[in-house]
Amino acid sequence: MCSVITLNRLTSVHRTLAVPLRLKANSFATAESRRLCPGGSYGFESLRAPRRSFCSRMALKEGLFFRQLFEKESSTYTYLLADRDTKEAIIIDPVLETIDRDLKLINELGLNLTLAVNTHCHADHITSTGLMKKRLAGLKSAISKFSGASADILLSEGDKITFGKHHLTVRETPGHTDGCTTLVTDDHSMAFTGDALLIRGCGRTDFQQGCPKKLYQSVHQKIFSLPDQCLIYPAHDYLGQTVSTVGEERKFNPRLTKSLDEFVHIMNNLNLPKPKKIDIAVPANLVCGVHQV
């Protein structure tokens, strides 16, 4: 009888101890899920059954390398994409202040960077494209033909930017500037929207050929026409957000869910101060970022 009581007590103790152990394990799994898929919603139910959440890992096709990098002064995102098999790579919106970091990463990964492309002529930072060309033999630059900037390749609607077996397709999305482009992966799983569409926002339209009507039409026709699950990767974010989706922005973007007239009114009354670096950034970016560098 005594042995039975001892066994029952031990079993009870084990059960009591097992609860915090399970909770600890679940907390670790939740933390790992958040690390791998930032922005997803996680709880105990998500650990028991598969749940659809949007993160960069979901969008990647087999053999595609993707890295999102950040420059804190201008809150600019730089994107590095490569073919894992051929190591051929491209970089989107590189920033002068982080050129050493970016080139170090490219070298560490053994990538062959063939193209540096800017989504538009930036006004808040200087691109590192020109200086990067001086440090990497064979690297070419690209920007929209409507940007007014010099580059090795001037991009137009429908052009394909190829790296290995992958490519991005150019969609012209003017409105923030005349030369804004959105770059879309061939499977429509990712879109690099520059300043045209931000996470719960959009680029301003009060300088550099800005036009709210053009921007509204660009976003609705060229970006919101993509699948709901297409991941949106903007050129900037000022709140620590890293990624959104077409479906989210179509539903929740506080500006672009309005009518055209309402949107124009909002954009014409933002009354924002001009970017701090506009007077040096724009002239430099018109010559590939090598002006007085």
Explain this structure.
This protein is of the alpha/beta class and 293 residues long. The protein is built from 9 helices and 14 strands. Strand 9 (181-185) and strand 10 form a beta hairpin. Helix 6 crosses helix 8. The longest helix is centred in the first third of the chain and has 35 residues, at 2-36. The protein is globular. The model is unreliable at 1-59 (pLDDT under 50).
Radius of gyration: 23 Å
Percentage of residues in helical conformation: 25-40%
Largest sheet: number of strands, sense, barrel closure? 6 strands, mixed
| Shape, per Cα inertia axes | globular
Roughly what is the average pLDDT, rounded to an integer?
Answer: 85
N-to-C span: 87 Å
- How would you write the strand order of the largest sheet? 1-2-3-4-5-6
Low-confidence runs = 1-59
**Assembly annotation:** single chain
Set down the secondary structure blueprint:
Layout: H1 2-36, H2 44-48, H3 56-59, E1 64-71, E2 76-83, E3 88-92, H4 99-108, E4 112-117, H5 129-135, E5 140-144, E6 153-155, E7 160-163, E8 166-172, E9 181-185, E10 190-194, E11 197-198, E12 201-202, H6 212-223, E13 231-234, E14 244-245, H7 246-252, H8 260-267, H9 278-286
Parallel strand pairs: 3-4, 4-5, 5-6, 10-13
Antiparallel strand pairs: 1-2, 2-3, 7-8, 8-9, 9-10, 11-12, 13-14
